[in-house]
Amino acid sequence: MTKLWHTAGPVLSILLVLALLWYGAAIALNAAWAKDKASRIDKTLSFSELVADTMSQEKPLLPAPHQVVKEIYETTVLKKITSKRSLVWHSWITLSATLLGFAFGTVLGVLLAVGIVYSRAMDMSVMPWVITSQTIPILAVAPMIIVVLNAVGVSGLLPKAFISMYLSFFPVVVGMVKGLRAPDQMQLDQMRTWSAPKATSFWKLRLPSSMPYLFASLKIGIAASLVGAIVGELPTGAVAGLGARLLAGSYYGQTIQIWSALICAAVLAASLVALIGMIERITLRRMGMVQ
Amino acid sequence: MNETVISAKNLSLTFQTNDGPVHALKDINLDINKGDFVSFIGPSGCGKTTFLRCMADLEAPTGGSITVNGMSAAEARMKRAYGYVFQAAGLYPWRTIGGNIRLPLEIMGYDKAEQAKRVANVLELVELAGFEKKFPWQLSGGMQQRASIARALAFDADILLMDEPFGALDEIVRDHLNEQLLKLWARTEKTIGFVTHSIPEAVFLSTRIVVMSPRPGRIADVIESTLPRDRTLDIRESQEFIDIAHRVREGLRAGHAYD
Ligand SMILES: Nc1ncnc2c1ncn2[C@@H]1O[C@H](COP(=O)(O)OP(=O)(O)O)[C@@H](O)[C@H]1O
Ligand SMILES: [Mg+2]
User: A193–B83: do the CB atoms touch at under 8 Å?
Assistant: First the structure.
């Protein structure tokens, strides 16, 4: 019990501080509009009236935490998940593109890494392009990908997954190249003394050695995938997904909706990363690589 | 009994480095007979490791020739003629001790039952029975090195090449492992090539001691040991032992090894 408190205590304290700061900022930012409204009907607000107003505006500059919580509650628990107004439904749309793109990106990243490690020509030629691909802002690339794919009749899930892949293959390539090269010269020589075929040293030495690196990359990759899927929903004015909620929210100044979509995306990202962290712990423990 | 297992003729190896050529080995001539325990001793940089790596086909000579079991070193490696023990145990952290020893057996295609039998066998040989299911991090450095020797013994190679296998261990553990190694050599009748930079270790273990000198790496002296094959640590107090050690020291001095 005390042990739980030792970890939960600091976390809760930080949350409390953040909530207080958020409320403070909400009051400060929304006060102008509250005063503006009051002055138009020739009213001066007392401090408590002012605070009350800043907490309950319909389109506040910065919604108060409880407004966001209420919105999230109403759009998750109180809506059928098949409803177009359910945040769960929108999250699932984004999540499915995220997971598909992440799977593509992981496969592509691992394949490229294997090529780079085993072929000097690929090492020299592919890596610069991999790095270049990431220097182009995704916001510039995303609309082109979506539009081009739409033109050839591919729409919906795939274009978004494609952008997710574009963002998530990079950490996987970088991590896996490092991981597959982790065995030292002695370990490789040792394989040679057993005259092990190349495939054997890949499966029995390089691949297991790369696992810690792979998982570190996957954690970055899945978060990048989520960003990719959301960005992929922006340029077409998509009607579904967290990106669509953000976009619609900003069209109509629905700040509460924007914030709830943002928080939802953050929670989703954190859960995905935590899930991979869990798989990592289980795998590495099974392998005997962590005590 | 005097069958030659490893034979080097005018063996030379020059590394081309950015600072110019390094003559790691120059005109080495040596025959190693079946069942011999041959130690290579000399200051660091005199080419001991390089010589051993040439026998193992981990390094390609730039001059002369080397044969192992009557074939080229490359063919011998393909035929898995030797087990090689590196300075570091190099056990895979994701495999148990048993799993590590099984690794070369898996690679060489032994069937499951045979693998299990051999693992149990060599674990007993290096006195690690009961540690099969432990992971490397659960073992001390000396035990890990014993496991790596067991791994090199698990398959049917009649040559064992060891590059300073006990170099990183303290003297007490080292003495114990040296004794164990001699017993193991007697039981398995392998031919052993052993690199060390410790004079007592070389004298205690070997039937022949090859003294090497640096720049370029050459053989300064080859000393045939007069000690009986069956020996215990006490032999180190004997006059014979001291005399051989003295000759090794002389050889090292003559080779300008102390410069
Ligand atoms: N791969 C290599 N490239 C260049 N020089 C090397 C290489 N390996 C060894 N050498 C050089 O060859 C010489 C002999 O090295 P080595 O056989 O490791 O000596 P020892 O094992 O006796 O200490 C040293 O001068 C070393 O620097
Ligand atoms: Mg050496």
Answer: yes
pLDDT tens per residue across span B125-158 = 888 999 999 999 999 988 999 999 999 989 888 9
Residues lower than pLDDT 70 in chain B: 1, 256-259
pLDDT of A79 reads 83
Candidates B11, B12, B13, B15: which one to mutate for ligand 1, based on the most atoms within 8 Å of Cβ?
B15
Predicted confidence (pLDDT) per residue in A241-287, tens digit: 899 888 888 888 889 999 999 999 999 999 999 999 999 999 998 88
Structure tokens belonging to residue B93: 């952290």
Question: Chain B contact for A56, CB < 8 A?
Answer: no
Residue A56 has a pLDDT of 86
CA of B139 to the centre of ligand 2 (A): 25
Residues 6+ apart with CB under 8 A from A195: B77, B78, B80
B109 touches chain A (CB under 8 A): no
Q: Whose CA is nearest to atom 7 of ligand 1?
A: B15
| Contact between residue B76 and residue B57 where contact means Cβ atoms under 8 Å apart | yes
Distances (CA, A) of B188 to A139, A230, B56, B69, B83: 69, 66, 20, 17, 13
Instruction: Give bridge partners of residue B58 from the DSSP assignment.
Output: none
ipTM for the predicted complex comes to 0.89
| Helical segments of chain A, H only | 2-40, 47-54, 65-76, 87-118, 120-135, 138-151, 157-180, 185-193, 198-201, 207-233, 242-251, 255-287
Q: Which ligand is nearest to the CA of B44?
A: 1
Q: Does A199 touch chain B (CB under 8 A)?
A: no
pLDDT at A92 over 60: yes
* Cβ-contact B142, B89 below 8 angstroms: no
**Domains (ranges, CATH) in chain B?**
4-81+159-254 (3.40.50.300), 90-156 (no CATH)
Please indicate if any CB of chain A lies within 8 Å of the CB of B86.
yes
Place of tokens 């490696």: B77
Contact B58 A193 (CB under 8 A): yes
Q: What pLDDT score does A42 carry? A: 84
Q: How far is CA A22 from the centre of its chain?
A: 23
Q: Give the per-residue pLDDT at B258.
A: 52
Look up residue B87 and give its two tokens: 């300075």
